[in-house]
Write a structure and sequence with these properties.
Elements lengths: L4 E8 L3 H13 L2 E8 L2 H10 L4 E4 L8 H10 L6 E5 L4 H9 L4 E4 L6 H38 L3 E5 L5 E4 L1 H7 L3 H4 L12 H5 L1 H4 L6 E4 L5 E12 L5 E10 L1 H15 L9 H17 L3 E10 L1 H8 L1 H16 L7 E6 L2 E9 L1 H16 L2 E3 L2 E3 L2 E8 L7 H18 L3 E3 L11 H13 L3 E10 L5 E12 L3 E3 L5 H7 L2 H21 L5 E6 L1 H4 L4 H12 L6 E6 H6 L1 H13 L3 E7 L6 H6 L4 E4 L1 H4 L6 H16 L3 E5 L4 H9 L4 E3 L9 H10 L9
Parallel strand pairs: 1-2, 1-3, 3-4, 4-5, 16-17, 19-21, 21-22, 22-23, 23-24, 24-25, 25-26
Antiparallel strand pairs: 6-7, 6-10, 8-9, 9-10, 11-13, 11-16, 12-13, 14-15, 18-19, 18-26, 19-20
Helix pairs in contact: 2-3, 12-13, 18-20
The structure holds ligand C2E and calcium ion (CA) (2 copies).
The site of ligand C2E has 22 residues, from strand 19, helix 18, strand 21 and strand 23.
Length: 693
């Protein structure tokens, strides 16, 4: 037998006897009633306050209370506990009224057989009511939460009913799309995607498919959105609407675009970056191959840009770099890409060309850079070297093409030809730039450097008046490496200090040998800008002079005009110090820097070397000839001697003599030579007396 079911039973009844009867009946029906009997309003109220009851039985009329009042009291309190009248006959009218007032059943005391089925039913229904109420409360709670979510969501939430009218439009929708809920509720959705022409054509197909896209706000502003849609169904499973959740991703898109721009474009020049060049090469190489054509990659490096930067300041250097792109653009096709790879290195990609066209383009690019650049009113002449590599011959992927163009560019710099096409033969020479740095220190320590000497001759007597020491690196693997390829590296790494001291020491030792042999050429050594910044330099040179036993007047130091301008005050101090030591000083590469005459006048220097770029072609180039002539005049006016370097022909040599130039140096006279090969010079042409260069 099943255990009796415990029910908390409240009995509104004046008769204890009837109460007992009722309880017994309940027990018979399988219940274990825990009961309380009340017979006044107050005690009923107290009982209701006390606990929750499973069921209430009530007599209809009692001496102190009425069943209908008890019922009313319960219902007023919002209490929906099953309420059954158990009473003597009250007449049909009253019974109906009682039921109307909210009683759940009416059982006649004389016929309690109906009691248990009624209790069973009422308890079951009460249980159902309770469950439903719980569910409703939960639903209400979740509705409230949902409503809060919808109201405060940063996402636009829109519901459209099956007729296409807006049924929900949250505050974020107002914000993002511009229309207020009042304007759109109950009306067709106002936003329209921005369509491209192609999309208009297949609009029908796309309308329901492509929802990621740009929309026009109420104010006409275009916004990028991300939209997710879901169908809403009612509980019969019918479609009751469509919900759109829209995120405004305009900012994100903008940020993405900025990031892309930053990766793909150089910030200084706004030219495509190495990354973008790489991408374009990746596409262009196979495309050109399909047509049996080449992609030409031209790598362009400015010569001596670092000097310009050091001399004129970085902001002017930057301004110059910004002018390069437009110059190059002017002589290229719109389909060509100009990229800045970093520093003063630029690249040009020519899709679909052959080697001849590439060489022509390179020529055009160099020509485009010839005209002086005006930076804050200062005319600046720059030169560049271009290396060319072509796909597929020199590389079938971006990296190898860039690498080989880079090698070719170094060859171009080395030969001073301006342009070089990649050839696998030079491969073993050029990619060594970086590796060399590590080896340079060892080279200095192990005497792998050596000096060659180039004579300077007196123009009238054609006798040697001095030699310029030029350093070389005898590399065990690569052979002889020219200074252009490691001096810059040495300057950057600080190795220029020991290198310079090595050169001075070696040159003085050689000078001493010549002096012992009765020859007395003055020996010139090149200093770099970094040397001038070193306050220890004068003392170190003094020590070397002392140790060598060579008089300081036999040493000449060449300093380029641009090196002087890196830090003019410091240069002045160092030069003054060196001059006081009785060392000869020359300004090298004169005409390529930007020093002022006023500054030059104050410098304690003895000679000026006109840069070879003016001298080489002065026989044919009228402009160069004018520059050389006026430089000679100017220098003489300052009381200084002039040396023309880069003399490559007899014609130039004669012209220089006619212009009253003092001395000359160049391949026509002699290339730089090792000491053993210089002897002929000293025997044939004894040093000119009275010259103090
Ligand atoms: P620079 O001081 O202007 O030296 C003259 C350069 O012109 C030398 O190149 C020389 O070989 C070259 N040259 C001589 N005659 C002619 C000619 O008729 N025509 C042409 N086109 N060129 C001629 P090199 O030896 O390759 O030296 C290049 C530069 O390297 C030098 O230019 C100098 O700035 C630097 N350098 C060389 N040795 C040293 C050194 O010991 N220390 C420092 N700091 N720099 C050095
Ligand atoms: Ca020099
Ligand atoms: Ca020079």
């Amino acid at each position: 037998m099943a255990l009796p079911i415990q029910i908390h039973t409240l009995i509104v009844e004046d008769s204890e006897e009837d109460t007992e009867l009722l309880l017994r009946e309940l027990q018979k029906g399988g219940y274990d009633p825990i009961h309380e009997r009340v017979e006044t309003r107050e005690s009923l109220q107290a009982a209701l306050d006390n606990r929750r009851w499973d069921i209430v039985f009530s007599d209809y009329t009692m001496p102190q209370f009425k069943g209908t009042e008890a019922l009313a009291l319960l219902r007023e309190r919002g209490n929906d506990t099953p309420f059954l009248f158990v009473s003597g006959t009250i007449g049909e009218d009253r019974a109906v009224a009682a039921m109307k007032a909210g009683a759940d059943d009416y059982i006649i005391k004389g016929n309690l057989k109906r009691l248990i089925p009624a209790v069973n039913r009422e308890l079951r229904e009460a249980e159902v009511r309770r469950e439903r109420k719980k569910a409703e409360e939960a639903l209400q709670e979740s509705n409230q939460t949902l409503e809060a979510v919808v109201q405060s969501s940063p996402l636009a939430i829109i519901v459209i009913d099956p007729t296409g009218n807006v049924r929900m439009w949250n505050p974020a929708a107002e914000q993002i799309l511009g229309w207020s809920a009042r304007e759109v509720l109950g009306r067709p959705i106002p936003i329209r995607p921005e369509e491209t022409k192609k999309e208009t054509r297949d609009r029908e197909v796309k309308r329901f498919v492509n929802l990621e896209r740009r929309y026009k706000r109420k104010d006409g502003v275009l916004i990028d959105t991300s939209i997710s849609t879901s169908l809403l169904c009612n509980n019969k499973g019918e479609i009751s609407g469509v919900m759109w959740i829209i995120a405004d991703i305009t900012e994100r898109k903008r940020a993405e675009a900025t990031i892309k721009q930053m990766a793909y474009y150089d910030t200084l020049t706004a030219l495509p970056s190495r990354t973008l060049l790489h991408d374009r090469l990746q596409q262009a190489i196979p495309a050109a191959a399909d047509e049996n054509k080449s992609v030409g990659l031209l790598l362009l490096d400015l010569d001596r840009f670092r000097e310009i930067n050091d001399t004129l300041g970085h902001h002017r250097g930057d301004a110059l770099l910004q002018q390069i792109g437009p110059r190059l653009h002017a002589v290229l096709q719109p389909s060509d890409t100009i990229a800045r790879l970093g520093g003063d290195e630029f690249a040009v990609m020519l899709p679909r060309i052959d080697s001849e066209q590439a060489a022509l383009a390179a020529g055009r690019l160099l020509k485009a850079l010839e005209k002086p650049f005006l930076i804050e009113g200062i005319p600046i002449v720059i030169e560049a070297s271009i290396g060319i590599a072509l796909s597929p011959e020199h590389g079938e992927n971006p990296d190898s093409l860039i690498q080989h163009a880079d090698i070719a560019m170094y060859v171009a710099k080395e030969n001073k030809k301006g342009v070089a096409l990649y050839s696998s033969k030079v491969d073993k020479h050029s990619p060594r730039r970086l590796a060399l740095l590590g080896e340079l220190r060892e080279a200095i320590e192990n005497n792998h450097l050596f000096l060659v000497y180039q004579p300077k001759i007196h123009l009238w007597t054609r006798r040697v008046i001095g030699v310029e020491a030029l350093v070389r690196w005898q590399h065990p693997q690569y052979g002889v490496i020219p200074p252009d390829q490691f001096i810059t590296t040495a300057e950057h790494s600080g190795l220029i200090q020991p290198l310079t001291l090595w050169v001075v020491k070696t040159a003085l030792a050689q000078c001493k040998i010549w002096q012992r042999e009765g020859k007395a050429p003055n020996v010139a050594v090149n200093l770099s800008a970094r040397n001038l910044e070193d306050p220890k330099l004068p003392d170190q040179i003094a020590e070397l002079l002392e140790a060598s036993g060579v008089g300081s007047a036999s040493l000449n130091l060449e300093i380029t005009e641009s090196a002087l301008m890196v830090n003019p005050a410091q240069a002045m101090e160092t030069l003054t110090h060196l001059n006081n030591m009785d060392i000869q000083l020359s300004i090298d590469d004169f005409g390529t820097g930007y020093s002022s005459l006023g500054y030059l006048k104050k410098l304690p220097v003895h000679q000026i070397k006109i840069d070879k770029s003016f001298v080489k072609e002065m026989a044919t180039d009228e402009e160069d000839a004018i520059i050389v002539r006026s430089t000679i005049e100017l220098t003489h006016n300052l009381g200084l001697k002039v040396v023309a370097e880069g003399v490559e022909s007899e014609e130039v040599l004669e012209k220089l003599a006619a212009l009253d130039c003092d001395a000359a140096q160049g391949y026509h006279i002699s290339p730089p030579l090792p000491p053993s090969e210089l002897n002929a010079w000293f025997t044939d042409t004894a040093p000119a007396k009275g010259w103090n260069l």
